[in-house]
Amino acid sequence: MTLTDADRQRLLSRLLRLDPALPDPAIGTIQGNCLDIIQHLPLGSVDLLILDPPYNLTKDFNGLKFARRAVEDYTAWLDQLIIALKPLLKSTASIYICGDWLSSASIFTVATRHLVVQNRITWEREKGRGAKANWKNSSEDIWFCTASNDYTFNLEAVKLRRQVKAPYRTQDGTPKDWETTKGGNFRDTHPSNFWTDITIPFWSMAENTEHPTQKSEKLLAKLILASSNPGDFVFDPFVGSGTSSVVAKKLGRQYLGIDLNEEYCLLTERRLELADSERAIQGFTDNVFWERNTLAIQKRDRENADVQ
Ligand SMILES: C[S@@+](CC[C@H](N)C(=O)[O-])C[C@H]1O[C@@H](n2cnc3c(N)ncnc32)[C@H](O)[C@@H]1O
Fold first, then answer.
1. In the chain, at which end, N or C, are there fewer CB atoms within 10 A of the end residue's CB?
2. 306 C-alpha to center of ligand 1: Å?
3. pLDDT tens profile 161-212
């Protein structure tokens, strides 16, 4: 997905502005430095905070560079960020913080200071650049934290549908915890903290943009479904190409995204515009998360449902 000049002109007027004042509620996208904008947002309003900040790597975000710094300096930057964000959280809020193996160390240090750390999800990202004298980086971490021990976790919404390898039956012959359909035998399993069913958006996926570190809609759908309810407020101060806002909109949540880069804010607005008519989330079909490489089975399963 790319923007034309006509898109840019049309979408620019949709960005929210601090001057003269933000609307209340502020639902949409703001261009700017999140550390400045946070100070203008209502206290105690956020149900779900998604933090996907620049990792501690030198990276060019459409001309705006984030420079790699010493681990202590990255930790201090993150600390300042969480201190600024914390007053915006409801006492029941959940917070997800993304990082790679190295920035993860800083995230853990800071999160344990200010939040309740509930878990660390490891996402097998697969794609990664090979190294000559090191192991290839092909995983990322997503730290699951909460503001207190009173928080939302919608377990049923994020179970993973897997094919059953050992189809045990009870004594009277009924399937034990699994279902049989035309597509095969399936079990909806408890979601673990090791995610192998998600790719990064690649060129043939409708959601793909030119953003260098775009997350997939399926990944955000898991976070948003597990840790918020319809109507809740999802906030992402590093929204990039807009994935969290777009998925929040598709799932009936309220959303606000901030990005330093105007082009990414416009991309976010373009995706939000398309979400008015396209609600599908790739990999999340009929409210079910399927394990990877099951498209043919999902199709057979749907045909089965249609004839019942
Ligand atoms: C890792 S990316 C987020 C990608 C996003 N999750 C997606 O799916 O597209 C981090 C983003 O933070 C933005 N950024 C960096 N510093 C920022 C700041 N101080 N305030 C707001 N945005 C910032 C960058 O422009 C970049 O788009």
1. C
2. 42
3. 888 877 778 888 787 777 777 677 888 899 999 999 898 998 889 999 999 9
Residue 32 CA, ligand 1 centroid: distance in Å: 10
Contacts of 38-42 spanning 24+ positions with Cβ under 8 A: 38/84, 38/85, 38/88, 38/237, 39/84, 41/88, 41/235, 41/256, 42/88
Nearest CA to 28 out of 11, 45, 40 is that of: 11
Q: How far apart are CA 53 and CA 88, in angstroms?
A: 17
| Structural domain harbouring 23 | 5-155+191-288
Q: What is the CATH number of the domain that holds 64?
A: 3.40.50.150
Q: Is the pTM of this model over 0.90?
A: yes
Nearest to 119 by CA among 102, 103, 104: 104
Which residue from 37, 64, 66, 238 has its CB within 8 A of the most atoms of ligand 1, so it is best to mutate?
Answer: 238
Q: Contact, 214 vs 241, CB < 8 A? A: yes
Structural domain includes residue 300 = no
* Structural domain count, the chain: 1
Cα Rg, the chain, nearest whole Å: 20
Q: Which atom of ligand 1 is nearest to the CA of 37?
A: 20
